[in-house]
Amino acid sequence: MGQYTASELWSITAMQSFAGFSLFSVLLLMALGLAIIFGQMGVVNLAHGEFMALGAYTVYLCSQLAHNYAPALIPVYFLFAIVAAFLASAIAGLFVEWSLIRFLYKRPLDTLLATWGLSLIMQQLFRTIFGAREVTPTLPDWLMGSFKPSESIDIPINGVFVMALTLALTGGVWLFMYRSRLGLRMRATVQNRNMSGAVGINTRWVDRLTFALGCGIAGVAGAAFTTIGSTGPDSGSRYIVDTFLVVVFGGTASLLGTIASAFGIAQAQSIFEFFLEGTMGKVAVLMTIVVILMIRPKGLFANKVRS
Amino acid sequence: MTTSQQKMFAPLHTLRRAIPGLMLATSLSLQAADYPTASVNTTGLSITETTVTVGQLHSATGTMAISETGSIQAEQLAIDQINAMGGVLGRQIKVIPEDGASDWPTFAEKAKKLLVNDKVATVFGCWTSASRKAVLPVFEKENGLLYYPTFYEGLEQSKNVIYTGQEATQQILAGLDWIAKEKSAKTFYLIGSDYIWPRTSAKIARKHIENKLGGKVVGEEFYALGHTQFGSLINKIKLKKPDVIYAIIVGGSNVSFYKQLKAAGITGENTTLITISVTEDEALGIGGENLVGFYSAMKYFQSLDNANNLAFVKAFKAKYGEKSVIGDVTQAGYLGPWLWKAAVEKAGSFDVDKVTAASPGLELTTAPEGYVKLHPNHHLWSKLRIGQWKTDGQVKVLYESALIEPDPFPKGYQ
Questions:
Q1: Inter-chain contact A278–B223, Cβ cutoff 8 Å?
Q2: Is the pLDDT of residue B243 over 70?
Q3: Cα–Cα distance measured from residue B93 to residue B298, given in angstroms and rounded to the nearest whole number
Q4: CB of A233 within 8 A of CB of A63?
Q5: B40, B348 in Cβ contact below 8 A?
């Protein structure tokens, strides 16, 4: 690296660690909702990516509305759109749980097929309603561009925004799961459904709300990703593999595991991508994950309980 | 009517229709009566006295639908226009549309259906190289005819396929020459999606840069289709400071790539980026504001200022809406039916062998991209243009090459 000056190397190191953290927040944001649905409830939801896409499309709709009817709102609409994305995906989740998932809690393999079918249905709905073309919402100006702490360092603002959102959402999920009444009921139901029912918890409603919450979080993730990429009918299927990777690698039933796993994968990927090339970087990451999962088959943070 | 009946009655038809045929001989359009079915169709294709059936095989659903919709529309427009002019050899073109659904085995299956069951005279279709490779054995075995619209990596030539887009050297070499001269560029960074077309194109670009331009490739990398995180790559670009970024990224990745470049402060104002994978169609998704100042190398841009193109754009927008945009492949799709019409009329027959035999040397003076000529290797002579992107998602054309001979198997580039 002799041909580069020290200050260049310093700025690249700074920007590179930012890239790692940025990828970390993206992966964590993707995985949070699934950590609840798959990790806590044990539902293999292959349509999880489509709930993200639903959130993204909601933002797109809001942006169209703001653009056509209230141009003055463009700088602020995005914040409302995130809330709308949460609600849209959560309501869709509520409906899906009521109409499909609740019949399949004891049949995990059928869930796999049913949610795969659901993902195809949702993709085709997106295609019919929004068209096959990828769409991008008009983003407020303050989200674009970069922040320059020094001459040679550019920190993209959308990356900072996604990070802040991830932080807030992770904090929120933690508070909800470990500090709220409903979170307590949710964890109780996961650990022992019969006993929870016996002490007066309406487990059916807990299931429904938990599923809806997971979907709502997916919607927020989708909303946040509109600042990074575009949204198409098949955007969801692009995210689903990474999402499951993070949750499984972290150990399915642990929120801390999901965070650690997202961090590990993100840092490894951005470092490998920097020193190798794109495809080889990904290969190296997947190889590492396979080896670690062979040593720790239950993931990084497995719950040590007797079954 | 069966084929044998058609053969038996053919002379009678000729006689019966001979008089009106003569009366209309002065008119420009060809009359079906001058070309009795039995003589223009000796191989049992689905052709009657008044119609000829053709197939259209694209992805109307699935991932590729976004790209292929433009080709479907352009081919349909050309067919409508040809029908309005009186059809081909006096026969109206009837289209059987099939959906390849972005799935390559489905493409092969539908190709077989079109050729064997429907007995279509020709097929306009395919978009990705993968889908073309999947249908190729079917077309060669059943002796069908395919008009393929996409610019692609070359290294292929089939007697059953007419390639109306550019092969790689036509799109790459002149563009590299221009940018190297214009920007005095010496160092290049090649970035692509990870599949056959970008990889082959990057290989050709690298050979040209190293052997012909005396430049240096300082980075060459590929990312999986659908990749959305380019942070590490952008940092590498910033560290290596290439004179030119050469981008061959396709699909959804494009949007993330250009958005992130802009967010990282790499814009047309301070960086030279040239791409061979962004047309007006992609620009619509990426957003003109993220592309401003970057260059695309294509044979066609919607903003080309010539009478053919103005009429084409007007007709396209009248049919598909004022907001629709036309990219390079859409225009190449539009050429297919016209080239087929010209070949059939030159051959005086719909038989595939006669149509392909008549194809080399065909000229179209009415093409929106300007004059094109069909080479014996089944590719088109065409020009290369460099466009610079503007905020409205259209380009300003800065450069136009002379007609470039297609060379699908370039020596020294493999």
A1: yes
A2: yes
A3: 30
A4: no
A5: yes
How many angstroms separate the CA atoms of A220 and B163, rounded? 45
CB atoms within 10 A of CB B268: 18
What span, in angstroms and rounded, lies between the C-alpha atoms of A102 and A111?
Answer: 10
Name the residue ranges covered by the structural domains of chain B.
41-166+307-381, 168-298+384-400
DSSP state of B128: S
Test A22 with B255 for CB contact under 8 angstroms: no
Percent of all residues in chain B with a pLDDT value above 90, rounded to a whole number:
68
Specify the CATH class of B41-166+307-381 in words: alpha beta
The alpha carbons of chain A give a radius of gyration, in whole angstroms, of 20
pTM of the model: 0.81
Distance from CA of B165 to the nearest CA of A (A): 22
What is the interface pTM, i.e. ipTM, of the complex? Answer: 0.76
Q: Which amino acid is at A222?
A: G
Q: Which of B36, B60, B34, B30 is nearest to B48 (CA)?
A: B36
Residue A12: pLDDT band with limits 50, 70, 90: confident
Rounded CA-CA distance B313/B326 in Å is 8
- Run of H or E residues at B188: strand B187-193
User: Can you list the positions of beta strands (E) in chain A?
Assistant: 146-150, 153-156
Q: Is residue A31 domain-resident? A: yes
Instruction: Give the DSSP H/E element, type plus range, for residue A31.
Output: helix A6-34
Give residue-wise pLDDT tens across range A20-73: 888 888 888 888 888 888 877 888 889 999 999 999 999 999 988 888 887 777
Euclidean distance between CA atoms B359 and B335, whole angstroms: 13
Run of H or E residues at B146: strand B146-148
Q: Does A245 touch chain B (CB under 8 A)?
A: no
* Residue B51 CB partners (closer than 8 Å, separation 6+): B91, B92, B93, B94
Number of Cβ atoms within 10 Å of the Cβ of B110: 24
- Statement: residue A201 has pLDDT above 90: no
Q: In this complex, which of B252, B260, B287 lies closest to A238 when CB atoms are compared?
A: B252
User: Phi/psi of residue B96, each to 5°?
Assistant: -105, 105
What pLDDT band is residue A304 in, cutting at 50, 70 and 90? low
Candidates B191, B232, B250, B262, partner chain A, best to mutate (most A CBs within 10 A): B232
Query: How many independent structural domains does chain A possess?
Result: 1
CB count, 10 Å around CB of B305?
A: 8
Give the separation between CA A116 and CA A124, rounded to whole angstroms: 13
Determine whether domain B168-298+384-400 maps to CATH 3.40.50.2300. yes
- As given in the structure block, the two tokens for residue A65 are 């509305």
* Contact between chains at B221 and A279 (C-beta distance less than 8 A): yes
Tell me the nearest-neighbour CA distance from A253 into chain B, angstroms.
Answer: 27
In angstroms, the first-to-last Cα distance of chain B is 52
* B288 touches A: beta carbon within 8 Å: no
Distance set, CA B350 to CA A286, B3, B10, B251, B356 (Å): 54, 14, 16, 37, 10
Which residue, B213, B269, B257, is CA-closest to B232?
B257
Residue B266 reports pLDDT greater than 50: yes
3-state secondary structure (DSSP) of residue B369: coil
- How far from the centroid of its chain's Cα atoms is residue B104's Cα? 18
What residue has token string 């009429």? B311
In sequence order, what are the beta bridge partners of A52? none
Report in angstroms the alpha-carbon separations of B44 from A247, B47, B62: 59, 8, 34
